[in-house]
Write a structure and sequence with these properties.
It contains 18 helices and 18 strands. The strands form 3 sheets. Strands 1, 2, 3, 4, 5, 15, 16, 17 and 18 form a 9-stranded mixed beta sheet that branches. It is of the alpha/beta class. It folds into 2 domains: 40-103 and 397-452, Urease, subunit C, domain 1 (Roll); 104-389, TIM Barrel (Alpha-Beta Barrel), CATH 3.20.20. The relative contact order is 0.17. The protein has helices spanning 3-21, 31-35, 126-131, 137-140, 143-159, 175-188, 209-220, 238-246, 257-261, 264-269, 287-296, 304-309, 319-324, 343-363, 375-382, 384-389, 423-430, 457-475; strands at residues 49-57, 65-74, 77-82, 91-94, 98-102, 104-109, 162-169, 191-196, 228-230, 232-233, 251-255, 277-281, 299-302, 330-331, 407-411, 436-441, 444-448, 451-452. The protein is 37% helix and 19% strand. It is globular and about 60 Å long. The two termini are 26 Å apart. The structure holds zinc ion. Zinc ion binds next to loops.
Amino acid sequence: MDAKRRHFLTGSIAAASTLAAHGLMAAEQSMQELHQISSPAGGPSGRRLLIQGGTILSMDSQVGEIPRGDILIEGGKISRIDGHIEARDALVIDARERIVIPGFVDTHRHAWEGQLRRINPNSADLMNYIEGTHNSFAIKYRPRDMYVGNLLTSLGAIDAGITTLIDNSHNSRSLKHARAAVDGLADAGIRAIHAPGAPLAGPWDKASWYADLATLQNERFSKPAGLLTMAMMVSVDREQWAVGRKLGLPLVTEFFGKEMSALLPALHREGLLGPDNIFNHCTDLSEDAWEILKATGVQVNVCPRSDTHWALASGMFGYQAAIDHGIRPGFSVDNESAYSGDMFAEMRAALYMQRGVAQARKFGGDVNAPKPVGMRALLEAATINGAAVARLAHKTGSLTEGKDADIVLINTKDINLYPSNNALGTVVGAAERGNVETVIVGGRIRKHGGKLLGVDMERLRTATMESRSYLFRSVGFESDGLAEQFVLSRRP
Ligand SMILES: [Zn+2]
């Protein structure tokens, strides 16, 4: 151990143990207090909003791109997009020198893992990821930890301009855990599809899982209004698929590799594949598998960073293979246990991996090498294609009159973005979370002036630290925050 690390240990860990001994660790807030951390009603609602004078990248082929235009929002929906709109009573959002885009759609995120951000950044394979999440902390999650994880992830997503998540909640240990996860999404004010799934390790309420799904659906999703809908996270399991379909839930599955590809022909023959299947990853599928996915309309999302980071199958994300088979995949972050939670990084990872592979093929004499991917295609994958994967393209994913107002403003007056000589290049090639100035979800302003609205940031951090301390303590995990690898001294 070097001197710097020893100093850190003697400093914060020793201090932390002393504080713990004296009961001075982050206080556990009551559930009622947790619910007060974030209120989606924090922004103005019911009022007409006018986004004025922005460069509009609509991601709608009919609307196209508008160098300078206005967007009017009424009743939470985009009512008009035009070069100039008069709306005297509307609250005006100045969009001059801003680029206006649809909110990003993250088609696959394990929101419950919020507290485990960068717990295992050098993790090089899936088993090692599972060690640092499912086989350890996940087993000890209380409902309140599900709440905190989902709230933190969702607010972090909104802060980065992600307005829609498919919440792959594969730590749904009980009905109480599922309810708390839904509460976290609701209090954040994000648009989300909550997909409860079976935990990978430890005891859970397996016997009542199917009944609990029906109860949750009845309690929380029986009215079609609002930002939240429900799906079910399933493995390739005919019984689970039948249960989900009986409840009318889309089926979300982690799907990759040749072995899983080999399961598809039989499922196809039985008529069990369709547009209500959402497949994550899709790395290294067989040619047959891609043809079946195309023929049956299965929704595909690829994970530019995750597929590479954890070396899923070949480790090369399935973007090119999907495009080659006429499928338009969405992008997804997957989780934050090793890297950041934003779509800017996904678009950039996709850009360089696709171009690297395309160029290597061309350089090697392949006359069928694909063309280098462009900025528009990448922004489409992160917005409108993702909305289609989530089966929400009628509501979000583009700036279109009649759709819900899920809108992001990128401030090109920031030092890293001006002069903005090409709007698509500015957003896809250069922008970052810090340039996300305003975020509107379903007509409600959730971030403005670069700050989340209606969020008690100090209490959010306290709740997160308390949850993390509990999880660390309960599996006996000690960390100076500098470990190369995730190592647990004893099994939970
Ligand atoms: Zn995943």
